[in-house]
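Researcher: I've been going back and forth with a colleague about how Transporter, SSS family might be arranged in three dimensions. Neither of us has a model we trust, so I'd like an independent prediction. The organism is Nibrella saemangeumensis, in case that matters for your notes. Sequence below.
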Amino acid sequence: MNTTIDTLVIVVFSAFVLVIGMLFARTGRNLKSFFAGGEAVPWFIGGLSLFMSFFSAGTFVAWGSIAYKHGWVAITIQWTMCIGALVTGLFLAPRWKAAGALTAAEFIRERLGLTVQKAYIFIFTLVSVFIKGSVLYPVAKLVSVSLNLPLVPCTIGLGLFMIAYTAVGGLWAVMVTDILQFVVLSAAVFILLPLSLDRVGGLQGFTSAVPDDFFNLLNGEYTLGFVLAFVIYHIAYIGGNWTFVQRYTSVDSPKSARKVAFLFAALYLISPVIWMFPPMIYKAINPSLTGLDTENAYLMICRLVLPPGLLGLMLTGMYFSTSASANTALNVVSAVFTNDIYKGIINPKASDKQLMRVARGSSWFFGLGMIGIALLVPAAGGIVEVVLSISAISGGPLLAPPLWALFSKRLTSRTTLWITCIGLAVNLFFKILSPWLLDFKLTRGAETIIGVGLPLLLLLTFELYASRKGRVAAEYLRYQATRQQKREDALLHTDTGESFEIRKQNRFGLRVIALSLAFTGVMLFGLSALASSGAGITAGIAGVVLLAALIPWRASKRIQLNLSTQEAEKFVNSENR
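Model: Here is an independent structure prediction for Transporter, SSS family. You can compare it with whatever you and your colleague have in mind.
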């Protein structure tokens, strides 16, 4: 492995991403443009960004380990995300957009009240910082091991870099880098897959060298019950996680929000098959890995077959995928703090300039917290234990009630708090106290079923009871009145100047995406010239990436910036006020 070339590739791409963040420094005029892209983000951009926000280096470490040990079942498990996204697209994403809130926390305040919102903000912020801080750890470990760099400085450096472009550029900076790293990672995997198959002697050599049950849909501890539990969990997670809700609310209509979720589902139907094959192939090459060494299967196959520079490309993709997941959460946590705590509670009359300073400052504050968590992951038992444990404990109680409130007119704030508290208490008991007091520990599948199933059962019980009594929640009636007032205000206070600036920002974002793809294509052409193997494949992928750059460029040209005479007059009047 030529670490000099690989390091150079990582440095060049990282510098390029930071420049992208800086380009968007002046595009965020207010919270709506900074955190929601002016609610006019193209749906295919939102869908790709949502897809990559779901990824992290943990995908390659954790799922790669399962693929190496058990084979196809790693793909089966990830298909549950496709099912969750389909349900979200059909029922949940359009509801979130129609709710008219900038953040999920804003909807919770309007529908369930300030007390519920405060409790949820506290839990969500704590959970997000812990989970997204923990996923920073594996990519820092991958980079440090591959390039012989110290782990702690590597973790801090990568974390600071992640915070920098998120705090400066807002949602558009996050989405542009999401698209860029989607292309980088996809290009690397499409190069890795044929080279891996060639090393093992083709498809026939691969299938003949792995265990007989390697292509079973279910395998080992990953039973049908576990998979079904994951389906339920991912419906709640993809449909209700606040970081994903931001993608549904940042597009222009409920129809576009549905398309965002459907694109995510389509990508998760195809991508697991392509991305999980390399560690499966490595099983045929080296079947001797055991224990925690199986988590390195993806990295080992990359080091074995990728030519100089392309390992750096793969590591860059893994880092960007982690940063996409973490910086999306960072952007939303900052949005919730700025919009729902600072503006909503502390300083309701804050100016746009004040709010933007708080937005960027809170991004740094929460980002540094994530770095601190990442440094503590090894002492907590590793990323898989941390992420799955926190998700099992908090997922259902935190996500299910707001999703239910999207449809129910009977759910009250008091009931919401009780169900959330009962769910958290039961999950914490089985996770922490039960193994200690009763010497009894739930399986992963049982943890997930109870974690999501119990809140849903309690919600259904209350809904049936309230329905029999003919009750309608007072909070729901207030929410309906608030929505109507917001619609009337929106019609009376149409800001033509803001509409113009949003279109201008979105055209700029699409052009930056096009230029980023062109830059990536040129880089791949340069790497193909250095490749000792796979030069033709790399050059072919480079050509595809260059052609793909035409899509956002042509889309940007369709955005009309010319104001009509009436719009121009409104814009001048608004500027003179």
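Researcher: What would you highlight for our discussion?
Model: I'd start with this: The two ends are 63 Å apart (CA to CA). After that, consider the following. The chain has 24 helices and no strands.
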